[in-house]
Design goal:
The chain contains 9 helices and 13 strands. The chain is α+β, with helices and mostly antiparallel strands and 289 residues long. The protein has a 6-stranded mixed sheet with strand order 3-6-7-8-9-10, sandwiched between helices. Helix 5 packs across helix 7 (210-230), helix 5 packs antiparallel against helix 8 (254-268) and helix 6 (193-201) packs across helix 7. The relative contact order is 0.13.
Length: 289
């Protein structure tokens, strides 16, 4: 990364998504993967009263279905979790193959414990913790989470997700820094806004709906307009074909890349300037945890 710290929201999403995957090295089976849960992100559902709900993650498998609220806020999410329980399970058939008549198991995922009321909570900062599993109805899910407790999430291959649907504009900027740097690589043909979004979403891309992608594209276009106009007017442009790419004036050079890196940092994290040498030095964390 060109920024020294992972954003908490991204760390939360990356570590939560790891629980839907499995790896041979190290030997790790995510608890949600172990019971065959397939998931979608930020998809709209309706209650039986016709009210819309849009949970962060909805996942379903043969033994049941779950709703996950991912949050870094210090306040309780109990009201949100209560509302998710009212989702009509018939709408599952729009997104997943396993449908159910039962109510879902609702969980929160956090980086540190906050009391979210009578709901199971997974803590995904570094070491996987599970709190209040007694509130789960699905015994297979209980067993899988119990077996996964204590897993060191820092040892897993890093998922390069850098953008998620609920991001604010300033978070979008931080998520785009590495991707924008790719535009200045030799032989880069540039990227459209949807390509920037899909690279940022990485493996979440096919889990996110069209509406949410369009919303992200609008945010990306807004922050990229600011980047071009106010930070890199000489080196970055939006072509008539709708691609963000390096201008003809840009030439691959140490000092030029240093200037671009500095301007990107100012755009994404004002006041946190680093030189190109700082960014390339061993003391600067390229891939921080």
């Amino acid at each position: 990364m060109y920024l020294p710290e992972l954003d908490d929201r991204i760390a939360l999403w990356r570590n939560t998504i790891q629980l839907f995957h499995r790896y041979n090295r190290p030997d790790f089976v995510g608890p949600f993967n172990a019971i065959g849960l397939s998931y979608v992100v930020e998809r709209p559902f309706l209650t039986k009263q016709g009210e819309e709900r849009k949970p962060d993650i909805v996942a379903s498998g043969e033994s049941g279905w779950i709703i996950l609220e991912l949050t870094t806020t210090p306040g309780s999410k109990k009201p949100n979790l209560d509302r998710y329980k009212a989702i009509d399970p018939r709408y599952l058939n729009q997104y997943v193959s396993n449908i159910h008549d039962s109510t879902p198991d609702v969980l929160s995922s956090r980086l540190s414990f906050v009391d979210d009321g009578p709901y199971c909570q997974i803590i995904v900062k570094d070491i996987l913790r599970v709190e209040k599993e007694e509130y789960l109805n699905n015994q297979d899910l209980k067993d899988a989470l119990d077996q996964a407790k204590g897993a060191d999430l820092r040892k897993l291959p890093e998922i390069p997700v850098s953008i998620v649907p609920e991001m604010k504009p300033e978070e979008i900027c931080r998520g785009l820094v590495d991707i924008v740097m790719q535009l200045f690589e030799p032989n880069s043909d540039g990227k459209t806004s949807i390509q920037l979004v899909e690279v940022g979403l990485e493996r979440l891309s096919d889990k996110v709906g069209v509406t949410e992608k369009h919303s992200l594209m609008d945010k990306v276009n807004n922050v990229m307009e600011d980047l071009i106009k106010n930070h890199l007017p000489e080196y970055l442009e939006l072509t008539k074909g709708g691609k963000y790419k390096a201008t003809e004036k840009f030439k691959q050079h140490h000092k030029t890349m240093g200037h671009i890196a500095s301007r990107l940092r100012d755009w994404a994290a004002p006041g946190a300037q680093k030189t190109w040498d700082d960014i390339r030095s061993p003391s600067f964390p390229i891939n921080p945890k």
